[in-house]
């Protein structure tokens, strides 16, 4: 993905296309590359925005789900985005949930895929073993239904992160923050149309988590994708983009009818 990474103040981000903002929030070991197919597909109809979340740049006291949400809020205000379709994967979904609960006014719709916020089996369940490449490779493979999706480049990227002591401490801080920050009692407050796209073979946030989100978020619809793990937008981008496209089109219909 050869999109320009823009910088404004302390914020680094990709912004491609014109139209309603589609803001994408990556997960704990996520990167801009996680959304390559999604950006390629939707930049022709939307302003697709991917902020680089400062997972390792915040001080340890703010290396939390709440700290990341504050960063996202400041970024949205700085760019003055409105009528946002907000999408989050894994930890990014958790950040999106906290954001919509605190600042619903600019959000038009919410899309969650493999989101934490209720329950997750993550890297935080055991200390990420520094220097153990095979351990890291198996952890990355668990993200996907097809282990071949855990390419050497992807494993190398995670291995480099977990080989840095300070980054490991921050990973654990974020993982523990996500576990502590259970949103079950607050989800009924979400008023925006919400789309849940879940891998039927997700072992990090298993299918029962998606069903619970669907039960607790009032205006939500749930789609499962077979032979798919924790990152549907990477593993089955064609089907993921089709489901998302149909959902976003529905959100645009009322405005078109009024016109």
From TrEMBL:
Database matches in Gene3D superfamilies: alpha/beta hydrolase
One family name in Pfam for this protein: Abhydrolase_1
InterPro entries: AB_hydrolase_1, AB_hydrolase_fold, AB_hydrolase_sf
The keyword Hydrolase appears for this protein: yes
Record GO terms (molecular function): hydrolase activity
UniProt KW keywords: Hydrolase
Domain AB hydrolase-1: 21-134, 179-235
Source organism, top-level taxon: Bacteria
PANTHER family: HYDROLASE, PUTATIVE (AFU_ORTHOLOGUE AFUA_2G14860)-RELATED (PTHR43798:SF33), MONOACYLGLYCEROL LIPASE (PTHR43798)
Protein's UniProt name: Alpha/beta hydrolase
Organism: Danxiaibacter flavus
């Amino acid at each position: 993905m050869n999109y320009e990474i823009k910088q404004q103040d302390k914020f680094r981000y990709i912004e491609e296309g014109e139209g309603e903002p589609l803001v994408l929030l990556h997960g704990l070991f996520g990167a801009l590359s996680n959304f390559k197919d999604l950006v390629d597909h939707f930049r022709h109809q939307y302003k697709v925005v991917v902020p680089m979340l400062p997972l390792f740049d915040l001080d340890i006291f703010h290396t939390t789900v709440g700290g990341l949400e504050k960063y996202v809020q400041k970024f949205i205000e700085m760019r003055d985005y409105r009528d946002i379709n907000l999408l989050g994967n894994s930890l990014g979904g958790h950040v999106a949930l906290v954001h919509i609960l605190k600042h619903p006014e600019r959000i038009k719709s919410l899309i969650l895929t493999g989101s934490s916020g209720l329950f997750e089996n993550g890297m935080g369940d055991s200390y990420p073993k520094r220097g153990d490449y095979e351990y890291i490779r198996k952890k990355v493979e668990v993200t996907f239904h097809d282990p071949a999706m855990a390419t050497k480049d992807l494993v190398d990227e995670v291995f480099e992160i977990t080989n840095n002591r300070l980054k490991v401490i921050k990973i654990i801080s974020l993982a523990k923050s996500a576990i502590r920050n259970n949103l079950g009692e607050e989800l009924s407050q979400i008023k925006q149309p919400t789309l849940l796209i879940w891998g039927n073979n997700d072992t990090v946030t298993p299918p029962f988590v998606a069903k619970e989100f669907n039960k607790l978020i009032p205006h939500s619809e749930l789609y499962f994708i077979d032979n798919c793990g924790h990152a549907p937008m990477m593993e089955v981008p064609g089907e993921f983009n089709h489901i998302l496209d149909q959902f976003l089109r529905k959100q645009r219909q009322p405005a078109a009818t009024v016109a």
